[in-house]
Amino acid sequence: MQYKVESVQYDVAGVHLSGLLARSAVWPSRGTVLALHGGGSHAAYWHRDSAPDTSLLLLGASLGWTVLAVDRPGYGASAGLPRDRQDLDHQAELLFRLADVLPAYLGGAFGGGLFLAAHSMGAILALRMAATEEGKRLLGVAAGGVPLRYTEEKARAMAAVPTDGELVPPLRGPGTGAETYFGPPGTYDPALLTREGRVVAPVPIAEFCDARDNPLTLPGILGKVQVPVHWTVAEYESSNLAGPEVLEEAGRLLAQAPRVELHTQPGVGHNMSLHHAARAYHLRIMAFAEECRARV
């Protein structure tokens, strides 16, 4: 069976949110996965027409789930959102309002609940959502590439960014180039480093400030999460600290979560869904979503 990925747009609290949608192969669906891209990216992080085998959307649909990869507030159709609505708390509010209207938009394709799959800055957002009272209704969260701790080079580069504009200028210095976000040659399509092949977008400054301060703020947030969490780091992570001690720290901080699964994904760098091994990573996400669905 062929599964279709369609471009969609939703009007949520006066904000146009765009994205990519793949509807479940079964009716009603098993549930809906809301996929949140990282900073400086967009919905195509989760699905590229040139690499269908690595698509979370096509995989999820084939397994009976509906998958919506949304352009987070400040990206895609909502690029240029006022700065006072760009920060992660306001993004969380808009995405919860999107969750409110999705059952009406999707009908039986919405299925049995909402699961968040999220990467990097999007994962910070997903965990913030899961730490709220509204977040208790989520089936669970799969968080990848979370910057619980930055490398020293990345932290210095982020500290040097002026924050008086609307968008983040390119980071400068060691540990900030495109190669920082990928594994060794051969683990990804080299076209992703070309102007034509990159999956990139400008970063709104307000969310950057939240991400820059994340090592200070996230520990307290994690202690409030009360839904299952699948936490993945990349084997070749070079943007964040991601050794066994970071995984252990994440597990300790998620003390209120009913289940925590900690995983190191082989064969990938920070941008896990853009590597050849993305399908293996996405299969783990979908397996965890299925397990979360079974416990409701």
Automatic annotation (TrEMBL):
Keyword Membrane: yes
Entry keyword set: Hydrolase, Membrane, Transmembrane, Transmembrane helix
AB hydrolase-1 domain boundaries: 33-277
A Pfam family reported for this protein in Swiss-Prot or TrEMBL: Abhydrolase_6
Signal peptide range in chain numbering: none
Record-linked SUPFAM superfamilies: alpha/beta-Hydrolases (SSF53474)
Transmembrane segments: 104-127
Gene Ontology molecular functions: hydrolase activity
Protein's name according to its UniProt entry: Alpha/beta hydrolase
Organism placement in taxonomy: Bacteria, Bacillati, Actinomycetota, Actinomycetes, Kitasatosporales
